[in-house]
Amino acid sequence: MKRSAVVLASVLALAGAAANAATFNPWGVHDSFESFSFSYPTQTTFEDRINFTLSGASDLWSVAVSNEAPLVLNITGGSLELFRASDNAAVFNSPLTFDSTSTSVLTSSLAAGDYYYVVKGAVTGSVAGTYTITSVVTAVPEPETYALLLGGLGVIGFVARRRKAD
């Protein structure tokens, strides 16, 4: 009986060591350009959460890539998802899958608030696996900005027309 308990404890310990889940807060309020890289040892599965805040309405460009060297550094089944923290709703229609080539998506008109990326994968390289997430934010203009632009163009047109008439 003792022997089976020791075997069971060993199996559970190894399973726990082979799977990793981590939460990171590297950015706080998202600047216009952010990047995050992380490495895991070989024969590991992982699921990381990267939290951040958007201070205003924004377009968000997300890029994911695993940094690979054949047989040495390798991640398989890499995926990137984006969630709104208030209700854990997925923002992407489907997860981005990535490997040694990058994958990217532009998400338009996200509201201000808290968000998080979830990065998943399995390290199959003989040494380690490393991934990089790059996130670029551009502000979405307010409707008043467009109204001001159109008003300015109208004034320019009006002045040009008056000059032409004179």
What attributes characterize this protein structure?
single chain, 166 residues, alpha+beta, Jelly Rolls, 6-stranded mixed sheet, 4-stranded antiparallel sheet, 2 helices, 10 strands, 24% helix, elongated
The helix/strand order is: HEEEEEEEEEEH
Low-confidence stretches: 5-17
Distance between the termini: 105 Å
Mean pLDDT: 82
Strand content: over 45%
Determine the fraction of residues in helical runs and give it as a percent range: 10-25%
What is the SS-derived class? Answer: alpha+beta
CATH class: Mainly Beta
The structural domain count equals: 1
Number of strands: 10
The number of distinct helices, counting runs of at least 4 residues, comes to 2
Give the overall silhouette. Answer: elongated
CATH topology: Jelly Rolls
Radius of gyration (CA) equals 24 Å
Keywords: Signal
Protein name: FxDxF family PEP-CTERM protein
Pfam families: PEP-CTERM
Organism: Aquincola agrisoli
